[in-house]
């Protein structure tokens, strides 16, 4: 297993390098770089230097030699901007400079926020972790018992109506369900039970610890429910089908023939084999929820997380934030793939990835 893990770790380097090369190359052809953003502010009469943070000049400009809307501006001003952002260097030099900085865990500063990329990510992380972690935990807590019960009662009316309810829930878009929750429970038209913005109340620091915990869950209840609704279907049906496959195997019939109770057969023998793919996939499911689908939920509930950070960075062409988060999350995603394999071995030691590769 050690040799397999070592090979997977070594594969992270070329995979991550390929991700960065592809995205860096694509940015070269995207119009409206940060310099053009500043030019637009100048032409619009805004304060171009308000919140301006230099440093970081290690990424692509995505613009051209002739900037749109730059007429009337002194060439020296444009040249100073290029030097400030580092766009006076060739793309290849910027790319390798960026990688060298990343190897030293230096991800630069945001162009427009006057804060380092790492600090910016850490600032937004609690919201995304809250949504990703609790959505995944709730999905597992509900879906696994429900899937087992559906497998045991396969073909009954309970199985039929729960399948219909799950499919309907899966078909409802998350943002539509989020709006429905706001209308019903956040003062939209009916009950004012839950808050509509933020992760905590304004007076959170002055609350006692039990009150802080209650306040935290009070704020995330609706966002977590909205982001969880579509996860039930896949996980529940996966659990059900895994149990049905195991229940039909010979070792289950042998265990029943020995006089074991149905509960002992189900949870003492079937559960471990049936839950292999479900439990081992927990890290990947969490990261999937953590990275995807959070932008709309965060926007609807006025939460300032990584989803909104990525969207705003893309709109503003804040390249240090875009490439820094791409590198960090790409590395995390690749590491989670290895962790998922380790979870398979932990759940079922009979699995040997080295022999399978051989």
Automatic annotation (TrEMBL):
The keyword Heme does not apply. GO terms for biological process: microcin transport; transmembrane transport. Residues 125-340 form the ABC transmembrane type-1 domain. InterPro entries: MetI-like, MetI-like_sf. Keywords: Cell inner membrane, Cell membrane, Membrane, Transmembrane, Transmembrane helix, Transport. Its main location: membrane. It is a multi-pass membrane protein. PROSITE patterns: ABC_TM1. The keyword Lipid metabolism does not apply. It is found in: Cell inner membrane; Cell membrane. The chain crosses the membrane at residues 9-30, 129-148, 160-185, 216-239, 274-301, 321-347. GO terms for cellular component: plasma membrane. Belongs to the binding-protein-dependent transport system permease family. This is Microcin C transport system permease protein. It comes from Salipiger aestuarii.
């Amino acid at each position: 297993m050690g040799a397999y893990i070592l090979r997977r770790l070594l594969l992270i380097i070329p995979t991550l390098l390929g991700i960065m090369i592809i995205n860096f190359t694509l940015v070269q052809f995207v119009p409206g770089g940060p310099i053009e953003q500043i030019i637009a502010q100048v032409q619009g009469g805004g304060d171009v230097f308000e919140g301006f943070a230099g440093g970081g000049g290690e990424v692509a400009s995505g613009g051209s030699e002739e900037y749109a809307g730059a007429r009337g501006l002194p060439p020296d001003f444009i040249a100073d901007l290029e030097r400030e952002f580092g766009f006076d260097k060739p793309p290849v030099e910027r790319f390798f400079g960026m990688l060298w900085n990343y190897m030293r865990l230096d991800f630069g500063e945001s162009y427009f926020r006057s804060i380092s990329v790492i600090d910016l990510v850490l600032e937004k992380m609690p919201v995304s972790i809250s949504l990703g972690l609790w959505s995944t935990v709730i999905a597992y807590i509900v879906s696994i018992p429900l899937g087992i019960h559906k497998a045991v009662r396969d073909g009954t009316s309970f199985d039929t109506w729960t399948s219909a309810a799950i499919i309907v829930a899966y078909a409802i878009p998350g943002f539509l369900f989020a709006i429905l929750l706001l209308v019903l429970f956040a003062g939209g038209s009916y009950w004012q039970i839950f808050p509509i913005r933020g992760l905590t109340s304004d007076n959170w620091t002055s609350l006692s610890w039990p009150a802080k915990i209650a306040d935290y869950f009070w704020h995330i209840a609706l966002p977590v429910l909205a982001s969880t609704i579509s996860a039930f279907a896949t996980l529940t049906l996966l659990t059900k089908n895994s149990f049905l496959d195991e229940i039909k195997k010979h070792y289950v019939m042998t265990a029943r023939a020995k006089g074991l109770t149905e509960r002992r057969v189900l949870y003492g023998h079937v559960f471990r084999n049936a839950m292999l793919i479900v439990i081992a996939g927990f890290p990947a499911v969490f990261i999937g929820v953590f990275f995807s689908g959070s932008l709309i939920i965060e926007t609807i509930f006025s939460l300032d997380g990584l989803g909104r950070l990525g969207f705003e960075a893309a709109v503003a062409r804040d390249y240090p934030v875009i490439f820094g988060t791409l590198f960090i999350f790409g590395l995390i995603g690749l590491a989670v793939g290895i962790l998922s394999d380790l979870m398979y071995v932990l759940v079922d030691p009979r699995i040997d990835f080295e022999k399978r590769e051989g």
